[in-house]
What we know:
The chain is of the alpha+beta class. The chain has a single domain (7-121, 131-188), classed as Sandwich (Immunoglobulin-like), CATH 2.60.40.420. It contains two helices and ten strands, in the order H-E-E-E-E-E-E-H-E-E-E-E. The strands form two sheets. Strands 1-8-5-2-3 form a five-stranded mixed sheet, with no helix packed on it. InterPro entries: Cu-binding_ET, Cupredoxin, EfeO_Cupredoxin. Pfam families: Cupredoxin_1. Residues 24-91 form the EfeO-type cupredoxin-like domain.
Amino acid sequence: MVRFPNRSQAVLAAVMAFATSAAAPALADAGHGKGPSIGTPGVAAKANRTIEITVGDNFYEPAKIAVKKGETIRFVIRNGGELLHEFNIGTPAMHAEHQKEMAMMVEQGMLTSTGMNHDMSKMDHSKMGDMDHSKMSMPMKHDDPNSKLIEPGKTAEIVWTFSQASELQFACNIPGHYESGMVGEFKFN
Length: 189
């Protein structure tokens, strides 16, 4: 895990640098649910255990989580940082694709360094500028069951059933965050 002396400024600089340089169109929902099974949404009442995650401005605590095939875990994720963060369960390839989508959301003003522009999520994104909408499978929004955006000081939950052992990570795919160390791993027992 990389830690900067002034995490907020370092991450904010990375976010802004990436956001201004990210010009590639995003494929909404690209990689979500494709490839190896990453599991399924679970039911909180049937969770085997609850794991509390603290999100800082360039780290997760804990950074590694042991899971078992078939286990349902309730994740309670608290953003203790100063910036908007994401907790997203996926493979490295899924995160790479989702990072493109997140860059577009920042570029279009849907996400800022500290929050979400909730009015933007209600827009008809098919009429946005020069984007190639023929590749977008649905309107751009952030509502997948394996992912939550958490504003500073807020808490979110994901309940997830791990259906099979696979190379899974939890990560923040907001531009610059993954690269600054906001990625953890699931270790299957």
